[in-house]
Each structure stands twice: as structure tokens, then as C-alpha cells.
Amino acid sequence: MTATADVTDVEAVVRRDAALLEGDLAEFLGSLTLPGSSVRAAALRRALYEPVAEAVGSKVGQEALPPVAGGHQAPLRPSMVYWAYRNYRGFPGGDEAEASSADLAAIRRAAVAVRVLLKAAVALDDIQDGSAVRYGEPALHVGQGVPVALNTGCWLITAALRHAADPAVVDSLLEAVGEGFMGQALDLSTRSADTRAELTAAPHVDRVAFWEETAAHKTGTLFWMPLHAALAALRVVEDEQRTLDEAMRQLGLASQLFNDLTDFLPEFGGARTHEDYDGLGNRVVLELLDAPEGAELTAEDLKSYVLGHPKLEATLLTLSAEAVALKHAAKEAVHGVCRSDRSAEYFDVTIERKGHLIDRLHETVRRRSGV
């Protein structure tokens, strides 16, 4: 089989798995309907189930695999849960036999639980960050109000854990939820006067270490959570997990660098460019934070200070290159534990949802810098 045929074959499996997940998500949402027209049923539909459907449903801007002629027309997004399944249980029609129905059932439930948890994180994160837009649409709390959105996000966490069912998978997801909340706490702390003062006074190496710890908890968790859930579902316990954990940490750091850098690049940040100055969680700001001791660090002061800094462009170039390097290092590490070339291709298709944007961002900064 030629290389082109291999890619086509792998993409077909990715699409099939992604469509299966979308179908399972639709079934999950369909199970939330209440019979009858009682006041209670109507109230729950308005205040819980409709907001849940809005939070979990496919959003504009998330499409990873464009529709093909005669194929699935809904946005399809590959899942790391299914990559692990294919890596450890094989591909259909390949040298390795299709996994047992019990394995696939556990993976399907785990994949839904992971997606629901990710949507819960989005709903809660948008409230905490005051984000009005998500994926080009109004954030959940904008349309539904903060109380309903907060309740929806919390309920989704419990629903996801209940849906996972498998105790090992639930334990894995609980760990991820705790890590994510810890990352959020670190990020939120950068808005407090005490933490801002401590970061301002800290040496550069300590500021970077703080950022990395925050990003590993907050963003890295979103990458390793699907893998941990899948490995738990498949009862995979081996040294390779440490390699995968480190690779996911690197992808998390690369992703967070991308997010931080877009605040300085209208080509990527859009309407939100130059808005994230209410805290000191942005890596670019931390890199340039050499203001005199005792200087006021209001959002407007920081904005003027950073945008006028003579090292801003050089810092953007250095950090965008770091993001690319982290992404490539993660890919190489994962390829080292892939059971087949098909598995490596599946992984690449999955992470390049954001990976290609990281590369594009670096090229954009290089052109701006004249490099």
C-alpha cells in the first residue's frame, strides 16, 4: 500500500471513530429529555437540559475534519481516547484483530465522558475569565446567565463521571478534574495583589516555573485526561504511560503558549487581542516583567508597558519557536510508543487540530520580525 493510500485509510478510521463519538454524544443528550409537560419537566428543560445541549453540542470553529463528498456532514473532531484504543487494540481490517466488544463499549463511554468534561471546563472557564465569546458564538453564561451556566458546568462533571461507569476510568477522570481545578486556582491567583507582587519580585526563572506549573495543571490536563481514561478503560499499565504523560505535558505547554501569544497577534486573537491584562498568567507578560519595584501593575499600565517594550517582538519569536519545538518533541515521543505507522498517522491527524495553528503562528511572527 502506498503512503497516500495509508493516509486515506487511516483518515477513514479516524472519521469513523469520530462519527461514532458524535453519535454517542447525541444519544447522551437525547437521554436527558423528560416525558410530559409538567411544570417540573418544563423547568428542567429550560434551566438544565437545554443549557447542557448548548454546552455539549458542536460549535462553529471546532471542526477538525472537513466534510467529504457523500460523507458525514457534521463537524468531526478526533479523540485521543480513540487514538489510544487504536494504538493498543489495533485497526479494523489490519494485521491486528478488532478489539472485543467490551473494550469498545468501555472506550465509547470514556470518550463521551471526556468530551462532556471538556465542555464543562469551557463553561466554567468562560465564567471565570469573563469571556463573552467561545468558538465564534456567545459563551454559555452570556445567553443563559452566570447562575445557570455555573450550575450546568457543575452538573456536567457529575454526569460525565456517572456516564463513564467503570471505576478505574472514574478514578482517572476524578484525578484530572482535581488537577484542572488546581490549575484554575493558580491562574486565578495571578489576579490577586499579593500574587502579582510576588511574581513581579521573583527572578525570571521562578516566574517561568510558575507559568509552567499553572499550564501543566490547567492545559496539560486537558491533553492527558483522554489518554489516562482510555488506558484505564483498556487496563493498559506499562512504562509507556510515563512517556505519554510527558508528551501530553509538552503539548499542554505548547497549547498554552499559543493561547498566550494570540493575545499579541490580531491574525489569531481577533477581537480579543490585547485584552488579557487583568492577571499575570500570560507568558509573554511574565517574560517582560522587569518593571521597577513598587510599580503599579494595573491592567492598563501592563498593556502600555508590554506593548511598548523593546523586546516584545523578539520575545514573541522566541516563545512561538518554543511552542513549535514542544509540539514536535511531543509528536516524536508519542511516535516512539506507537504500535504501527497507522497509529502514528492517527495521532498526527488528531493533534494537528491545533498543531498546524502553532506552526502558522510561528511563521506569522517570523514574517513580522523579518526573520
Describe it.
The protein has a two-stranded antiparallel ribbon. It contains 15 helices and 2 strands. Helices cover 71% and strands 1% of the residues. The longest helix is centred in the middle third of the chain and has 31 residues. The radius of gyration is 21 Å and the shape is globular. A hairpin with a 2-residue loop joins strand 1 and strand 2.
Low-confidence stretches: 1-7
Which structural category do the helix and sheet elements fall into? mainly alpha
The main pleated sheet reads as: 2 strands, antiparallel
Task: Identify the strand order in the major beta sheet.
Answer: 1-2
Strand content: under 5%
Total E-strand runs: 2
* Helical content (DSSP H or I, runs of 4+): over 70%
**End-to-end separation:** 40 Å
Report the C-alpha radius of gyration, rounded: 21 Å
Give the overall form. Answer: globular
On the 0-100 scale, what is the average pLDDT? 86
From N to C, what is the helix and strand string?
Answer: HHHHEEHHHHHHHHHHH
Please give the count of helices: 15
Task: Offer a concise description of the structure.
By secondary structure, the protein is mainly α.
Topology:
Elements (H helix, E strand, L loop, with lengths): L2 H28 L8 H18 L23 H10 L11 H29 L3 E2 L2 E2 L1 H5 L1 H19 L2 H23 L3 H9 L2 H31 L5 H22 L4 H4 L13 H5 L11 H9 L4 H24 L5 H29 L2
Antiparallel strand pairs: 1-2
